[in-house]
Amino acid sequence: MTDSHLLAGRFGAAARLSPKALRLYADQGLLVPAYIDPDTGYRYYARDQVPRARLIARLRRLGLPMARVAQLLELTPATRVIELQSWLQGQHDRLADQTELVEALARQVDGGEPDLTAAVGVRDVAACKVVYQQRHVSVEQLEDVTLAAETEIRAHLRASGLPGDGPMSVHFHEPVSRDGERLIEVAVDYDGSVEPAGDLRLRLQPAHRAAYVPVPAAYEDFPLVLRVYDAVEAWLDAREDVSWGESPYERYPGSGGTLFDVAYPLDAAERP
Question: Which residues belong to any copy of the HTH merR-type domain (predicted)?
Fold first, then answer.
């Protein structure tokens, strides 16, 4: 061997990798020895493998799985940085979601939001016809997707000769978060006759009772709006005579001059 090669021990010291890590990366094909002595079994690495070894070590310290590290190693440095920045933003978003969940649990221990819970009411909701569109969204996409769906639905109603000015509701069939996309439904009430078009569908929304809260202006935006949902759920949990069945929804415009209400349909068998 020449001076351009290092025994595994010296190479590991230069790259700050343990013998165990070197063996693992060799087995995975990420960092294969440049030469293995057939007589002694000693493994030798080329000096120019040190930068790759240090890069692998740094990527592993990020907690990335081996398969992801292998993918990143094949990218140009500039592209690798872009990928890592995107990954890091995802980590920030996931941590933000986890923080919100922990804070929600802490609020429950502290008694929640008494003013919001006290504002929960129950109302009868009449049956109505709706045009709706379903989408999978993240928190960041929610506002834009909702506006686009509402605009498309109202335009279709007007093109069908109807006013298209009915109330809008956003139904959350899955909890929307920063971590991935979840199913929502944007619906607009209408009277008259209209045909479905594309992914715009029609449904008769049955009459039901709903527990609801007019959302104060200070709680309209995410994540503070989650406290309104928590308040309604706390109210429901405290009642033995009611339960909710269908997905919660936001109703625009809200009651009492608010922008929107948060509502939970009550089980059809329940009568508060």
Answer: 14-75
